[in-house]
Amino acid sequence: MISKNPLSVDQMTELERLTITLTAELAETIKAAVNEGDYASASEVIREALRDWKVRRELRQEELAALKADIDQALAQVANGQLGEFNTDRIVERARKLLAARKRSG
Asked: CA dist 75 to 63, 68, 86, Å?
């Protein structure tokens, strides 16, 4: 299969060459993807992996920001006397569920 996102001439001028070191297992995985025709080069495999990592990282940052906002809101409610009970067990359980869901998704 040919790469889904071929680079244009403009993008080619913006590339920077990096040297990376991988475990033998990761190197073989990349070579297999190229040999099977899924990618034209090892660079394409790495670029796609990094794009996916970037998206997952941004989603994690958004989830953490939302959780922090929830905690800040709850703390403000406690400080203002608007919340009668602050259930730390419930908060910890919710955090564990979010963490487990994140681990399952990748």
From this structure: 18, 10, 9
Counted residue by residue, the chain has a size of: 106
Residue showing tokens 């970037």: 54
Instruction: Give residues with Cβ within 8 angstroms of 37, minimum separation 6.
Output: 1
The span from the CA of 90 to the CA of 26, in Å, is: 40
Choose the weakest-confidence range: 18-27, 41-50, 59-68. Answer: 59-68
Could you give the CA distance from residue 64 to residue 66 in angstroms, rounded to a whole number? 5
Q: What is the pLDDT of residue 22?
A: 96
Half-sphere exposure at residue 52, Cβ-oriented, CA atoms within 13 angstroms: 8
Amino acid at 41: S
Q: Read off the amino acid at residue 21.
A: T
**pLDDT on residue 86:** 65
d(CA 49, CA 4) in angstroms, rounded, equals: 13
Asked if 13 and 7 count as a contact pair (C-beta separation under 8 A), the reply is no
